[in-house]
Amino acid sequence: VATFELLVPSGERLPAPPHSHEHYEETIYGIAGTVTWTVDGQPIDVGPGQVLCIPRGAVHRFDNNGSEDAKALCVITPAALGPEYFRETFAVLNAAADGAPPDRAKLAEIMRRHGLRPVAPPT
User: Can you tell me whether residue 11 is helix, strand or coil?
Assistant: First the structure.
């Protein structure tokens, strides 16, 4: 397994596109605050003590629509995603100019290289 802690500030929307992954499942354990996960179009709130399993192939994203910062533990089985993905992603996010959106094409390229399949939002 691979595990990581997810911190989502209040009012924060995921800057990366919705995505899926075929090679692993992702289980989310709510620790603090509430994160709204949208899985195959269905919004699901995950708060402290709640658990959500995202199956392989399900298109998903997350947002913190609340007024409280949120924290969750994410478990990936099998461990197909590692620290390099997060290092590369945060480098793109941190490179964005003040208030400018991150380079979505670069984020999508990083996602594909690490086994995530980005999905274009509906137009």
Answer: coil
- Sign (positive or negative) of CA dihedral 121, 29, 69, 94: negative
CA angle 25, 13, 114 (to 5 degrees): 40
DSSP reduced 3-state for 92: helix
Q: Which residues, in sequence order, are bridge partners of residue 105?
A: none
Contact in structure between 22 and 56 (CB atoms under 8 Å): yes
Of the candidates 49, 54, 68, the one whose C-alpha atom is nearest the C-alpha of residue 7 is 68
Is the peptide bond prior to 43 cis by the omega test (within 30 degrees of 0)? no
Amino acid letter for position 35: V
Mean pLDDT value of segment 82-108: 83
The reported pTM is: 0.80
